[in-house]
Amino acid sequence: MPVTDTSVWNTLAPRNMELGPRSGSANILTDWRIIKGDDDIVWLILDRSDESTNTLSEAVLAELDTALDDISGMGAKGLVIRSAKKNGFVAGADIRDFRGVTAQEEQEVEKRMTRAHEIVDRLAALDIPTVAVIHGHCLGGGLELALACRYRLAISDAKLGFPEVLLGLHPGLGGTFRLTSLIDPVEAMTMMLTGRTVHAKKAKSLGLVDTVIEERHVENAVRAAVSGNVKTRRGSLKSGVFGFQPARQIAARQMRAQAEKHAPQQHYPAPYRLIDLWEEHGGDARAMQKAEIKSFSQLLVGDTAQNLIRVFFLREKLKGAAKGESGIRHVHVIGAGTMGGDIAAWCAARGLSVSLSDLDRNAMAGAIGRAAEFYGKKLHSGIERRDALDRLMPDFEQSGIAKADLIIEAIAEKADIKRRVFEAIAPKMKKNALLATNTSSIPLETLRENLPFADRLVGLHFFNPVAKMELVEIVAHDQASRSTLDRARAFCGAISKLPATVKSAPGFLVNRALTPYLVEAFVMLDEGTAKETIDRAATDFGMPMGPIELADRVGLDICLEVARMLKESLGGAMPEIPAWLAQKVEAGETGRKAGTGLYDYDDKGRPKKASDTAAPSPEMADRLILPMLNTCVACLREGIVEDADMLDGAMIFATGFAPFRGGPIHYARTRGAEDIVATLKRFEQQYGLRFAPDEGWKNLA
């Protein structure tokens, strides 16, 4: 039946979330509201004004202090803290409060954090039962607020975690000592060191929440908690063992070794500060709290945290471009190779109907197999895995073309083959369907020739591996309609990807900037430098992997095609492509996907690297990184991307460009354009024209 104003669904809608009694005394503040029911249980509801998500700002915490004053005189038998936002409890601290602080402000930051702790401590010290009712996201400062309550009741959709390490920080509002004393300390440290979230059921098994309930049971569960009838689990056997410093020292050594594999200390100090905190003060909550405040304040004013906070806002800017309704419900993917198959699997996992076609039945079988393996690892229930596989439909007859709202072509990187496919499918498409190409380098002006609806052609350039790389380049051309580009960006939002709109040009933005970096590494190989040494120069700079390993991961065949196209377009700005690259591709040695390329690979897809190669020279990183920066400056000057922030975000989220440096343009400005230009000129004299500084450096200085 249709939903009307008088339907039962609208009558029940206000009860979709239990937000306290309908009657009783109420006090409405700016961000909090206080409601006392006839049972003398007080509900303290957080609903930040003019915000879609709850975060903890200084103002929100100050108002919490005021609310606690009011509650102290109410004769309450219990206190419930809950969010009125449908998307979750509290997403963490308001990052805007952290942005732009400097080393000179460290003492002021420490004072502000001390005051915030006093307010949360006041909640923790209440002599009445306190209950946090958690739904959706409960992260960072939000989880620290919940930890200050005596009971935590989680709705089944709750996700809890401490992502501060991703901002170059560790928990700073009591999380370090409250979590390690509540649950197994090693589990607690793992949560904080990795930043990973745990779902409600996992949180219950850890002892992080006391019970998992459905929304309809909230009221009864709250009453049971206030009455002391909720079974709790506090601490663990390991908590007693790790109360002794020698035990913590052994565990801390293992934690540092693990952290070093993923976050080198010279670039990411926060994990090591957290380990130090626990090792030194894990048996003394008061001392650990004092050390937490000081350590957090020092980290916050440091370059790493400020640059990672910058990256947070770059992500928010890209997410903002993905808002809107795409109208895309069915996606048809042409090409079941690594990229096409993984794009199809990702879209189906995000709830879209997907048909996948390929002439090669073995390729199709491989794509479905990879999808099933991916779903088995990443989806949380058998029902979710089953539904995702149901939505992913092998389509040998290509019948999905006529039904699709979006068709994504992901076949060989050759313009003539792509155009023939476009010519064959165009008559079968719906009138309002979009046609997208996953080309990594071919200008769309070349691909749109003879296409009867160039206004609905767009580039959707995904990056490998699709499941890990957040960015998608939205490639625009001068005949693409505004509606097409808007729908393409909204589609990215619907599948949890970050869209970066770039102008159609050889290599677009990311591959154009990345190719000089890769080819310079090939030149170094020809000079006799060990591939492991080259890769280490890049990882020492902060790249997630070196250029040799990256070339193998991308595929040497794709590297060769992109390098040839850019060499034709840019001439002397690109080094000569080594002959051995084409020979390897012809021999089928295309990299990780073939089991051999520049490296050989084991059966788990890991490169076999020598461990006894020389350390990189001081200038080696500059030889790799500065051609990339030079190209980024050229792309900015040519208008390939609209601004420096978009460029920095695209390079971080598509290539993993050292996030702690804040992006290539931000790094260039921090280091100084003059210094980079001088180094490029020196390299130009030493190595050739490809290092000639771009004219755009004048605008950046």
From TrEMBL:
Specify where the region named Disordered lies, as residue ranges.
596-617
The record ties this protein, via SUPFAM superfamilies, to:
6-phosphogluconate dehydrogenase C-terminal domain-like, ClpP/crotonase, NAD(P)-binding Rossmann-fold domains
What does the record give as its pathway?
Lipid metabolism; fatty acid beta-oxidation
Q: Which domain of life is it from?
A: Bacteria
Q: Tell me its family.
A: In the N-terminal section; belongs to the enoyl-CoA hydratase/isomerase family. In the central section; belongs to the 3-hydroxyacyl-CoA dehydrogenase family.
Q: Report the record's Gene Ontology biological process terms.
A: fatty acid beta-oxidation
What positions belong to coiled-coil segments? none
What GO annotations for molecular function exist for this entry?
enoyl-CoA hydratase activity; long-chain (3S)-3-hydroxyacyl-CoA dehydrogenase (NAD+) activity; NAD+ binding
Task: Identify the residues that the record assigns to the 3-hydroxyacyl-CoA dehydrogenase NAD binding domain, covering every copy.
Answer: 330-503
Protein name (Swiss-Prot/TrEMBL): enoyl-CoA hydratase
Annotated 3-hydroxyacyl-CoA dehydrogenase C-terminal domain ranges read: 507-601
Q: What Pfam families does UniProt report for this protein, alphabetically?
A: 3HCDH (PF00725), 3HCDH_N (PF02737), ECH_1 (PF00378)
